[in-house]
Write a structure and sequence with these properties.
Layout (H helix, E strand, L loop, with lengths): L2 H12 L5 E7 L3 E3 L7 E6 L3 H13 L21 H25 L16 H21 L3 H14 L12 H4 L1
Parallel strand pairs: 1-3
Antiparallel strand pairs: 2-3
Length: 178
């Protein structure tokens, strides 16, 4: 799976029904809500499949009010966050990263847990705690079902690549992401 193919699949499913398109080539990811003359645009970094999947995950989780705001109205603290800022980041990132992991398995691409804090002080116990929360969230998605837009996206990807295994066959564990 490559980024151009993901854009094609996403746009095919959501450009008309949700007035939203997926675009690569950005220096930094950014969601831009629809305006009178343009659809909403999910911008992901360069042509990185993992960035595309992560940004689509945020969009699939965001409610209608969030999708009317630039970058869903979230704050972003840059690299080098304090421990409290890192915990705040992780609280909003566990679900999108879990959904990105589901998408990665649907696409057959590797998933990498991201603390997004390369120059910050991240305690190994905190990394383990966050990884555990991502695993729990992924298992919850499988148990109760994906958000509707996420389910439609996965179905389109799986159909495109000819994947027929049930979603329940996906495997989520700490060993797979640590």
């Amino acid at each position: 799976m490559n980024a151009a193919r993901l854009e094609f699949l996403f746009d095919n499913v959501f450009a008309t029904t949700c007035n939203t398109v997926l675009r690569g080539g950005a220096k930094e990811p950014l969601y831009e809500p629809a305006c009178a003359d343009a659809p909403a645009q999910i911008n992901y970094r360069d042509d990185f499949v993992s960035s595309a999947l992560h940004e689509v995950a945020h969009w699939c989780i965001a409610g209608a009010a969030r999708r009317r705001q630039v970058d869903y109205g979230y704050w972003y603290s840059p690299d080098g966050r304090s421990r409290q800022e890192q915990w705040d980041f992780e609280r909003v990132e566990a679900r999108p990263q879990a959904l990105e992991w589901v998408f990665s398995q649907c696409c057959g691409v590797p998933f990498a847990l991201s603390l997004d804090n390369l120059s910050g002080d991240v305690d190994p116990a905190d990394r383990l705690r966050f990884a555990g929360e991502v695993v729990r969230q992924a298992e919850t998605f499988l148990a109760v079902g994906l958000p509707p837009r996420a389910d439609r996206f996965c179905a389109a990807v799986r159909k495109d690549i000819g994947q027929t295994e049930p979603r329940e066959s996906m495997a989520f564990s700490l060993q797979r992401i640590l």
